[in-house]
Amino acid sequence: MNSVSSRSKFAMTGLMLLVVIASTAAGQNKSPVAPSEQAYNTILKQAYDNFKNDTTGKNADYIPALAQVDSKLYGIAIVTTDGRVYKIGDVDQPFSIQSISKVFTLALAMEEQGAEEVFQKIGSEPTGRPFNSIPAVVDMPTHAGNPYVNAGAIATASLIGGATADEKWNKLLAFFSKAAGTQLSLLEDVYKSEAATNTGNKAISMILAKYDRIYADPFESVDVYTKACSVGVTANQLAVMGATLANNGKNPLTGEQVIKRENVPHILSAMMMAGLYDGSGGWAWHVGIPAKSGVGGGIVAVMPGKGAMAVFAPPLDEAGNSVKAQKAIAYVADQLNMNIFSPASVGLR
Ligand code: GLN
Predict the structure, then answer these.
(1) Sheet holding 75-80: strands in order across?
(2) Domains of the chain by range and CATH?
(3) 278 touches ligand 1 (CB under 6 Å)
(4) In the prediction, which pLDDT does 252 show?
(5) Which of 151, 158, 326, 346 could form a disulfide with 216, with the two C-beta atoms 3.0–4.6 Å apart?
(6) Which of 61, 63, 105 to mutate to test the pocket of ligand 1 (most atoms within 8 A of CB)?
């Protein structure tokens, strides 16, 4: 009897050791409920095929350069916190990051000023209005609303430190590039096109000034913001930027700590509240993953601790969110149990 129990004790210890070795070998950053490589590849292909021929929505055209982008382009990339990359379609095609830049402008402002200071100055209440709403600037308690509508993002850009507008812009570009793990650059044609037509954003900056809610020269801040929106990214690069957020602020491919880990929950909670503008409530209800969209046709969705998925497909719905990107992310999220409000997302069934 003794020998049986000591043998089973030995077996137990061996098993525990194996589990420890296996989890260490898999890497500290691998989620215990991570899907297999095969599951990722299969579901990614299904998401691509299911929506490839969907022609709903239309390109943004209030920024003339965006109307020129091929509306058939479609690419999906997933980057996991343990550094795996899965992709399909037009994942190497650069497009303008647009409002997704707001996430990383917020991140840099918090690096510089601290999260609480930024929260006090900008706020984080959803507006329930379009991203460029002028009445919302008058009505919202902080006037800036939240960091992901135009007013809040222009105010956040005004918080970035620097003696000149150029210095602020260069800091933002360098910071975005660290999150992407590669040097990003400005899409000049998009920048010029928006700079020539952004009277609405200039009006917003003046209303912010009326309420003392912009913290540098208003038009200069609009210009820094417009450049940030005109940064070119590919779906692949955007997924790396998202995975940096999923990985506690540390880029899983370069290993660099880009964003302070304590700031990440603030960034993601704001994405949940306002990442898809006045479509955010419906998105939270149906999909349940913090995400951010841009009128260039990109959406990045962040699965905390697991990874990020970025989709590029230019045609947008009424709220300004890529139609195919929403469908593809919703499909993958459902298949892989990624809804953060569902206990299944952490392996509980
Ligand atoms: N640069 C765009 C603007 O200011 C960004 C809007 C967006 O992507 N929703 O209108």
Answers:
(1) 85-89, 75-80, 307-312, 298-303, 291-293
(2) 1-349 (3.40.710.10)
(3) no
(4) 98
(5) 158
(6) 63
